[in-house]
What does this fold into?
Amino acid sequence: MTAVTPAPPSTAGAPAPADVAPGSRPGGRSRLRPAAGFAFGAALLFAVAPLALSDFRLALLAKYLCVAMVAVGIGIAWGRGGMLTLGQGVFFGLGGYAMAMHLKLADAGPGGMPDFMQLYGQLDELPVWWRPFASPWFALPATVLLPMAVAFGLGSLVFRRRVRGAYFAILSQALAAAMVILLIGQQGTTGGTNGLTDIQGFFGYDLDDPVNQRMVYFIIAGVLLALLALARQIVHSRYGELLVAVRDSEERVRFLGYDPASVKLVAYVVAAGMAGLAGALFVPAVGIISPALIGIVPSIEFVIGVAVGGRATLLGPVLGAVAVAWARTALSERFPGTWTYLQGLLFVVVVAFLPGGLASLWALARRRAERAEVHQ
Amino acid sequence: MTVLFGQLFTGISIGAVLLLIALGLALTFGQMNVINMAHGEFIMAGAYTTYVLQQSITGAGLSLLVALPVAFVVAGTMGVLLEILLIRRLYARPLDTLLVTWGVSLMLQQLARDVFGSPNVQTRAPDLLTGNVALPGGLTVANNRLFILALALAAVAALTLALRFTPLGRRIRAVVQNRDLAAVSGIPTARVDRTTFFLGSGLAGLAGVALTLLGPIGPTMGTNLIIDAFLVVVVGGIGQLKGSVIVAFALGVLQATGEYLTTLSVAKVIVFVAIVAFLQWRPQGLFTLRTRSLA
It folds into this structure.
């Protein structure tokens, strides 16, 4: 750091106090309300959406929910931990590629090779590092553990040496750039720019069948709810409070005897695991994973949904991610250029003038209402 | 020997481009701690300025000469506008500045697409810069690469002299070293910030002019370069220029060597790993200003 004004170490922008101390709501209601909200969300996802939406729209929703899973992780790492990770696409991609590699191998049958390898690579046999992915017992855990391992490796190096703030953001973005270039460069074994496409089956089920697509949607919705429950547990635990403390004043936490590097590392690794899982489920839902879905631009687009919804809240990132993804589809179909302007404007307006996201509007309105009650 | 020299020169010329881009970033990031993601679009603005000027000025050499100062002013003005409208309000939140300026860069890219069209455009290079210079021993270096190297070095020299000897440079250094103390000593820090932003963005415009000599001009040309340039600043250490100069050339040579020994994609990964490893050794970058802040 230079000797500029000692800006507050937290760069995440101060969220409204109401968001920061979630444990301090008055007794009885606080237990019941999340459970009720959870049940409402589950009903919406499992009953209302499948009934109200066409197969096409439901498949789109499944895709958005995958993005929302990444957003839950970013909400923890960035909203709670203050680590602006601009490279979540890497973890999303690792999970996605691990899953897609397995499905490609399953499609090809025992001893077979994915179609593209003969096409670009002129390979006679499967590359060594593809082989373990033929087994679901390796591939499925790998979709989560591989991203977590990469995040652990990078995070433990970087956080231990107190690389943070903008430096960390740039490094995470550079990781995304490097990953994409590597994938494109190794076209013979990774599919290059096209990625892994044309995935037919999902553990024996034909993905072209709308019934099976619905099944994939239900799996995705269930996993998202589970991740939200996990995120809630993390945020409301003692660890969650420590994470917020590290975000707001890393030095003080250090002086209190904690190790901020480990605290941040856990959040970063958890976020990576969530992104990996999201990538893995994205593949059967959409049928493709490619460098264009995981590079610098998609990585930063994951962040914008979180910012719009409210980075330091639990539900904000999910709602924001779904809303932004939906708006993108709705608008870019009709006016492609306008959407880019709008997206840029969204970044500017939300981050600059509403750092708490749309969730802070709600908190603001509630506080207004309370104040009005007091005055009466 | 020839191959070695060729690779070395390729590396140095990659480094020169990186340096031109990173200089402006080093200025603004170092002084204001602000990450300006729209810097890449200022490069694009410089490049399109060259293209527009070439439509009216027919001589390629003359138009290039005219483009240098014009692009500097165009990009600098855009930078000042950005500073006044947005960045000034966000000095306490550097990470948010990153996202906001990313939004600005998206809009500028789309604007370029609407004005100039999505396909890349090309400028004509002056005859003087299209050939090669033959050196003794059968070595050749491309003229345009030499020109860019000279431009980068001239920019470094001018900036160093300006920072060291002019009143403005003195003020900038004072603000970089201790903003509060500078402010109480009567230095108008807000105005200094704006001037620094003008200079930094203007340098991006110059880089844009230089890049027209190397390849086509397109709406997304800035995005690809900006991350490497940020890495240069991060590794070089902020608050001074010499770190960026050394690191730009070092990364350029590393990239070129890696590319020669393996492939382009593997070289990029090697560079990334090298940077993470380097930051283990010096997390604050190559050179840092000594401060008493906790880090």
Remarks:
- Chain A touches chain B through 54 residues (CB under 8 Å).
